[in-house]
Amino acid sequence: MAKKLIFLCLMLLFPVSILAQKSVLFDFTKCSESEKVPSRIEREGIVLEFRFDSEQSNTLWCKKKGRSSSLQLNNHTYFTIEGISCEITAVTISIVDYPGRFKVFGDDSEINCKKEKSKGEEFFKQDWEVNKQSITFVHATTKSSSIKSIKVTYEPVRPIEPAENTVSIDISSAKRATFYYGKKSFVIPKGVVARTYKIVDNVLSVSKTYQENDVLPSGTAVVLEAEEGNYLFKETTKEGEGDAFNALRGFDVETETVGGALYYVFAKGSNGVGFYWNKPDGKAFQTKAHKAYLVYTPTVATQAKSNFTFDIPLGINSTTVNDDVHQCCPIYNLAGQQVSKDYKGIIIVGGKKYLNR
Fold it and tell me: How far apart are CA 265 and CA 248, in angstroms?
């Protein structure tokens, strides 16, 4: 009798957990060929953002094939799906052709891709089960892709309720986030490191570091480093020590970036987590409240870079690549795409990673 009662209770609870999950569909099948697709789409708390690894093409467009349309992405385009106050539990991508399949950035496991048929049209479907607030997809091959739709399943996340005079900050699986308050100072909580950054010789480098219990002064934009999770920043009346060399900026309200010639948004891109142009040629963009962005005014126009990433990841064999390494075998970037020896950033040669400057 007791076992039967427990079973009935579990059966009653099971539908509740299923109902807690929601899904949103980014459907490109009904787009017209003349319709421009925005690089950032937000629906029901899910953000789909496309980024470009090449300055050659940064326009999104659809093409009709058969009865329906599909979003056309060249192999230099990748995209990130991010949940706002929710956790992504599954992603389904429907594509027209098998060669145009995708993989999760940084995941080299076997790619799931199966053929399907609906309303007389054949297509391929890729499914991922995840538990993340943000996930980035890149091309698995050097071929372009045609996306019919992207379905995202998610469930709400209940954040830690901040106490009075505290601010709650979520750190994603990227283990970094940006932070800015113009009129409030905070104590750095346990498990968190905050850093300001400067650009020296066209390279992003740490300028000042704030450790646990240090005071982060008002008006100081920083990059936070911590394990994935939620952290509470307690406000303090102490002033703290600022950084005159800090190249990071921020605002307390959403507004257009100012303060430099080029502007970079914090993101996870093709070269990893760092700062990337949000607009073509590094033009000003709308920055979110309490988030940091990077400004840069190069002394020579040709020095302008489209992205600045953080310190060299573990597993890099050296900071330079000699001619012998270049000639031994083909060169690939982190997305698995073959590149020339002039490609700048992290490359893979003979199964080893190098930083090619």
Answer: 10
The CA-to-CA distance between both ends of the chain, in Å, stands at 71
Q: Give the separation between CA 180 and CA 293, rounded to whole angstroms.
A: 10
pLDDT along the chain (357 residues), means of 10: 52 48 92 84 91 73 85 88 88 89 84 84 90 88 90 80 79 90 95 92 88 95 91 92 95 94 89 88 93 90 76 42 54 70 69 62
- The angle formed by the CA atoms of residues 45, 47 and 52, to the nearest 5 degrees, is 175
Q: What tokens appear for 20 in the block?
A: 């807690």
Residue 293 CA to residue 276 CA, distance in Å, equals: 9
Q: How far apart are CA 6 and CA 31, in angstroms?
A: 50
**Residues 233/226, Cβ–Cβ less than 8 Å:** no
Spatial contact of 313 and 301, defined as CB atoms under 8 Å apart = no
**Matching residue, tokens 């005014």:** 297
Q: What is the pTM of this model?
A: 0.51
List C-alpha distances in Å: 118 to 30, 59, 100, 225: 15, 29, 19, 46
**How far, in Å, CA of 5 to CA of 2, rounded?**
5
Chain centroid offset of residue 353 CA: 21
Collapsed DSSP state (helix, strand, coil) of residue 120: coil
Q: CA nearest 248: which of 321, 177, 311, 328?
A: 177
DSSP-derived secondary structure letter, 297: -
Q: Please, are residues 223 and 195 in contact by the beta-carbon 8 Å criterion?
A: yes
Sign of the alpha-carbon dihedral angle for 338, 339, 340, 346: negative
For 158, residues 6+ apart whose C-beta sits below 8 A from its C-beta are: none
Cβ contacts of 252 within 8 Å, gap of 6 or more: 180, 181, 182, 183, 289, 290
Task: Give the amino acid at 127.
Answer: D
What is the distance between the alpha carbons of residues 244 and 248, in angstroms, rounded to a whole number? 11
